[in-house]
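for the writeup, i need someone to sanity check this before i put it in the appendix. the sequnce is what the collaborator sent (i think, or maybe the updated version? ugh). structure was predicted straight from it, no edits. if anything looks off just tell me and ill rerun, i have time this weekend
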Amino acid sequence: MLAIKNAVLVMRDHFIPDATLLVENGKIVAFDEERFLPVPKDCEVIDAEGLYVGPGFVDIHTHSDGKVFLQDEPESACLHHLKHGTTTLFPALYFNMNTEMYVEKIRLLRKAMKKKECANIGGLYMEGPYLNPKFGCERESNPWQGPVCSERYMPIVEEAWDLARVWALAPERENIKEFVDAVREKNPQAVFSVAHSEAAPSEIEALIPYGLKIGTHHTNATGDRVKYPECRGVCVDETVNYNHEIYAELICDSRGIHVDPYMLRLVRRIKGDDRIILISDAYACDGPIPPGYEGVDDINFDHAGEIAGSKLTLDIACRNMIKHTGASVVDVFKFASYNPSRATGLLDRGEIAVGKRADLVFVDHRMKVSKVIMNGEAVV
């Protein structure tokens, strides 16, 4: 048995200070204030030294460690995120791959998941194939601009069916329901996300009964339907904000470039704290920093000078969210652990509760990570 003492436990809506937490067989078995739960004899003991101890971060949307793609060098990328407290991550496979490349990379990641170094891979995030070709970095190399075609997508669906927890798509693509039905036939629990899209509210809402419950990197790569030049249109962002069923992913960089700090505060006000998911959307792109972005060191740019994801990890994203919105430590653990777990059906983790996986991260008030426990074992 493992005992963690002298901890400030981060619960879903409060703290437990001066606490002890007990772990056995990779699960949380008990926790309380130290005066009510003394450390049992013959335990391995970790002294948290008064740090916050919260559930491990769950990054459902990340492509890389900021330098190399997860599907190319999964071991190093997984370890990079683990050191920053991410005990569950979903490698995101982008639409710039053809059928054969998708299948190859899915197989590679399936093998990597069996390695100890990649034990924090919890599934896949399919950012494609059917997005709107108008949006996203590297869109000039999008091989999926033609019609929805089962001969092209079925090999991907069949290879990824049990690993792909999220399928991002543009609801306005012609015959997209055919693709949704094919995915659901293989995996009825699959979650869909509106992404790289200029869909109308009706097109998005039509897919909610079929599992659409996430807005991919909310306010980024979303279009605007304008009926009259002098009026603001209603499109993806407004639909995600309006529908409580839909979780909003947010990329929270230090300068508020992906999402303006005022917009972050507005989304919190509209969506409520139980429908926000922090993601890193870390990408690997070495384009030059364009004019006006001097000093920006936590986002990437493609060779056309457009934003291409981030270099973030979730601990930094949490720190930025605290800075930009006044969120508390309790709040950001909800955004980075509990909410993404619930949105994607990982009900065995994401919170400190008896019977849950002992995935834990030790942080200070600035979200600096000092120790990480995954499945009951100290890994960092």
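The chain has nine helices and 18 strands. The longest helix spans residues 329-343.
thx in advance!!
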